[in-house]
Write a structure and sequence with these properties.
234 residues; alpha/beta; eight-stranded parallel barrel; 8 strands; 16% strand; globular
């Protein structure tokens, strides 16, 4: 995936409790941000129509629904996401779900992203969930499956980005949550990196939420992160 500037790579997460709050953030950030994430929280609070509205206004939308269901349901969900105008859509990186998603997205401009392992989890969490493997090994498996099935990219921690880039090459997207500017609180994320660190590791897009949406001056916070990203990109 080609990206031309830091603004193309920064995705601001609209993880807020109402459509009105999301619209205020978008208005405040103005033309400094061109890419937004809409996930469960906002979608279930009446924000799903914002996907089409933002797209119509020239913005791009990362629809973070983490789909996982029987193949037919995944197919229909992906078709609906494409019709809404989303640019990116997440699918949990289970082979049957990814295959169904790729089939449904064929011919559209929708980029499908396989969610490898959530950035809020660590090896101990995997063990508690019944997995007899490490995060590193599970991420490696799912990345290779996503590549071979034909997904457009993956979502992964910055900690795994460098190894993932070696596996998938330069064309697929690596979208990294868990981005925290130096000195900021990591919150509930366990595998984090600075914006520059994530880009240096091979990430193509960075998802940033609370460091921007929770800032007293949201536009200035976004511009600071964009400046750091721009310096890293060169």
């Amino acid at each position: 995936m080609s990206v031309d500037s830091a603004r193309d790579r920064l995705i601001v997460a609209l993880d807020v409790t109402s459509r009105a709050e999301a619209e205020t953030i978008v208005e405040t950030l103005g033309d400094s941000v061109t890419f937004y994430k809409i996930g469960f929280q906002l979608a279930l609070a009446g924000g799903l129509p914002l996907v089409g509205e933002l797209a119509a206004s020239g913005k791009r939308v990362f629809l973070d629904m983490k789909m996982l269901d029987i193949s037919n349901t995944v197919e229909k969900g992906v078709e609906s996401a494409a019709e809404l105008g989303a640019s990116m859509l997440t699918i949990h990186a289970y082979p049957h779900a990814m295959r169904a998603a790729v089939k449904a997205a064929s011919g559209s401009a929708l980029t499908l992203l396989g969610v490898t392992v959530l950035t809020s989890l660590d090896d101990q969490d995997l063990t508690a969930s019944g997995y007899q493997t490490t995060i590193r090994d599970l991420v490696s498996l799912r990345v290779r499956q996503a590549r071979d099935i034909g997904m457009g990219g993956v979502v992964a921690s910055p900690a795994e980005a460098a190894e993932i880039r070696q596996v998938i090459g330069g064309d697929m997207a690596i979208v990294t949550p868990g981005i925290r500017p130096a000195g900021s609180d990591s919150g509930d994320q366990k595998r984090v990196a600075t914006p520059a660190g994530a880009l240096d590791a091979g990430a193509s897009h960075l998802v940033v939420g609370r460091p921007i949406t929770g800032a007293a001056d949201k536009r200035a916070a976004a511009q600071d992160i964009l400046a750091e990203m721009g310096a890293a990109i060169g």
